[in-house]
Each structure stands twice: as structure tokens, then as C-alpha cells.
Amino acid sequence: MDFKGKRALVTGGSRGIGFAVVRSLLEAGARVAVNGRTPQSVSTAIGKLDGRDRLVAAPGDIGTVQGCERAVDTAVGAFGGLDVLVNSAGIGSGRPIEDSDEAMWDRHVDVNLKGTFFCCRAALPALRASSGNIVNIASDAGLMGVPGIVVYCASKGGVVNMTRAMAIEVAPDVRVNCVCPGYVDTDMIRRDHIERKDDPAAAEQRMIDYAPLKRITTPEEIAHSVLYLASFEARFVTGAALAIDGGTTAGH
Ligand SMILES: NC(=O)c1ccc[n+]([C@@H]2O[C@H](COP(=O)([O-])OP(=O)(O)OC[C@H]3O[C@@H](n4cnc5c(N)ncnc54)[C@H](O)[C@@H]3O)[C@@H](O)[C@H]2O)c1
To answer: pLDDT by residue (tens digit) across 106-151?
Structure first.
């Protein structure tokens, strides 16, 4: 897939799936604005990449409208426009319903759902001008109910259906799609959902067994699907929720 001459912004590009998307877009020839919550996280990420002359730092807290607008304005200002917006900034923690409080609800919804919406809103004028597109990182937990992560499910279910509604509203100017990954080997999973468990090896094995294809996927595999949806090759694809989950949401 050829992204030469394309201008992209990746929220949550400092780590994990977002970082893999940044690297893949760079390798495919794009200029990329990298967002993370803090300037330090972004500069550390940029320091790990080749092709720095095609990279721009676009920090901003995606949990706030102001942070979304700052990140988008930085990217559009630096590149003189925008062709691709990838919304990967997100948080995910699990707690039983009775232990979930308002702060946890607000943080998940603010970053995962509200942030995705307001980045899209801020980027739309530039994306309409370029006939560009948006790829949101939702989750398999946005396509099905998963006990123990109800708040996360609510936020990601919102991202999936928002993607569909937005795709129709902004067509034919802009395409909007989302990717729904299963377990991906990133800090979110390894640090928060494996290493903090009483028996990390058993927790990891449960994740491996969760998918019919019997493994945890890599950020690079998710990045490939993002690049496909963002590419010219996917020019007739909009409103799609592409599951990259080893068959988990195909049914049990
Ligand atoms: N890892 C998985 O198994 C998995 C599965 C399905 C969906 N996802 C989704 O993929 C996306 C990326 O997750 P990941 O696994 O790479 O996690 P990660 O924790 O490795 O990375 C998350 C990224 O989001 C950024 N971020 C978090 N809060 C932010 C904020 N307020 N403002 C700006 N940036 C912020 C972080 O800086 C980081 O770059 C998330 O939306 C997550 O929900 C992950």
C-alpha cells in the first residue's frame, strides 16, 4: 500500500497499536503526526523511529476537547492538510460493576469515546478537503458483551456504532471505518491484564485460548488492517467494523 504524499495523524501513537501504525505509515511513505498525552511520551516515541523528517509531534490529552483540537490543529498546521486520522488513544481496565465508580466511567468514556468523536469533528474540515478517511480503533469488546469490563464495553460499543453513523453522515466526502482487535500484545494487556494478576502465566494462557486461532496478536498485525482501511485499495469501504480477533466474535 502506497501512502507517499499522504498526511496522517495517529492519536495514541506513542505506544502499542498506535506506535505500530505510525511506523507502518512511515514505511509506506506517509508524513505522520504523532499524538500522545504528554510531549515527553511523543518525543520518546519519535526518537525510536527512522524517517524523522516526516514526523511531527502533536501531543494533547485526548480525554479533553481542547486536547483533541490541539492535536488536530498541530497536524493540519504542520502538513497544510490531512488525509488520514487514526484514533488509537485509549484506556482499558476491568472491574466488577459494583466496584466501578464515576471517575472510572468518565475516564473511559472521555478518552475512548468522547475523544474519538472530538478528534473526528476537529479533523473533518481538512478530511473533507482531501477526500480523506478515518480509522477508529474499537475492540472486539465493542462487538460483544464481555463480563468484567462493562465500562470498557460501553465505550467501545459506542465507538463501533458512532463509526457507522458518522460514515453515513460524512459520505461521500470522507470514509470512516473501525478495527476491532482481540487481545493484542501491548502494555495495556501485558502490564495491566497479565503481569498484575496473581498467576500471570495462567492469565496469559486464558487470553491465548480466548481466540479460536489460539494466540494473542501483535500490534503490527493490527497496523496492517488499519493501513488497508486507510488506503486507496479500500476506497469502497466505509462504516465497516473489521474484526482482527482470531475468530473470537465469530461465535462460540
Ligand atoms: N491491546 C489490546 O488487547 C486491545 C484490544 C482491543 C482494542 N484495543 C484498543 O487499541 C487502542 C490502543 O491500545 P494499546 O493496546 O496500544 O494500549 P497502550 O496502553 O499500549 O497504548 C495506548 C496509547 O493511548 C495513549 N493514550 C492514553 N490515554 C490518552 C490520552 N488521554 N490522550 C492521548 N493519548 C492517550 C497512550 O499514550 C498510548 O500511546 C486503545 O483504544 C485500546 O482500547 C487494544
So the answer is: 999 999 999 999 999 999 999 999 999 999 999 999 999 999 999 9
Domain assignment of residue 252, yes or no: no
For residue 20, how far is the Cα from the chain centroid? 11
Question: Is 61 near ligand 1, meaning CB less than 6 Å away?
Answer: yes
- Residue 211 Cβ inside 6 Å of ligand 1? The answer reads no
199 in the same domain as 222: no
Best residue among 22, 37, 64, 225 to mutate for probing ligand 1, ranked by most atoms within 8 Å of CB: 37
> Is 183 a catalytic site residue?
no
Please tell me which residue in 152, 183, 210, 228 is annotated as part of the active site: 152
Tally of domains in the chain: 2
Q: Is residue 48 classed exposed, middle or buried when 0-12, 13-18 and 19+ CB atoms within 10 A define those classes?
A: exposed
The answer to whether residue 249 sits within a structural domain is no
- This prediction's pTM: 0.98
**How do beta strands 84-87 and 241-244 pair?**
unpaired
| 99 within domain boundaries | yes
The atom of ligand 1 lying closest to the CA of 110 is: 31
Length of the chain: 252
